[in-house]
Design a protein that fits this description.
alpha+beta, 4-stranded antiparallel sheet, 191 residues, globular
């Protein structure tokens, strides 16, 4: 089983921006909103009507993009999926989290909140420190037996900064030609 760190194809699709950050902060509280990436249980009862859009943020003039991907990342640890992608992924992902409604550029999308948290092999994983302050991870490894059937997961080791997946998840994305994600076998935060 191969493992991958997931990233968004931001060079092609830009950045996804939520237009209702105040409502999200109000629903979860400012402190909890900042920690929302670590949540491992349902948040659907607090989830407000949410919407956003894709913007090209690399020039001096940000512009809304009309081409949007099938699957993307929101806050690096939530999947944002189109209706098409949800139909493909739902049978596999339902046991690992929940789909929350989200409108993107006027289209029906969903935010997939991942519940699965896997801790790495401590003998093969190392945190980067800069003057004693957390600066990322230099190596990350998971034992296959701790992953089990989880095809998509996050970890507290990197302070819930990335999503990771198995080759099964990657294969499903690629075989269904779902656009928007990159997969790297380098699990460190150096890339």
């Amino acid at each position: 089983m191969k493992l991958y760190k997931i990233s968004s194809d931001s060079s092609k699709y830009g950045s996804v921006e939520t237009f209702n950050t105040k409502e999200l902060m109000s629903a979860f509280g400012i402190v909890k909103y900042r920690k929302i990436r670590s949540i491992q249980q349902s948040i659907s009862d607090k989830w407000p009507k949410s919407h956003g859009g894709f913007y090209e943020m690399f020039s001096e003039e940000a512009r809304e993009l009309s081409k949007i991907p099938d699957v993307y990342l929101w806050m690096n640890v939530f999947l944002m999926v189109s209706k098409k992608a949800k139909d493909v992924l739902s049978p596999l992902l339902d046991i690992f989290g929940e789909f929350l409604p989200f409108e993107c550029n006027g289209d029906e999308y969903f935010i997939f909140s991942v519940y699965s948290v896997i801790e790495p092999d401590p003998s093969k994983s190392k945190i980067l420190l800069n003057d004693g302050i957390y600066a990322g991870i230099s190596s990350l490894s998971f034992k296959p037996e701790t992953i089990g059937t989880h095809i998509l997961f996050k970890t507290s080791f990197d302070r819930f900064s990335y999503l990771y997946c198995t080759d099964k998840f990657k294969d499903i994305i690629e075989s269904n030609e779902l656009t928007g994600l990159h997969f790297s076998t380098d699990l460190s935060s150096r890339t």
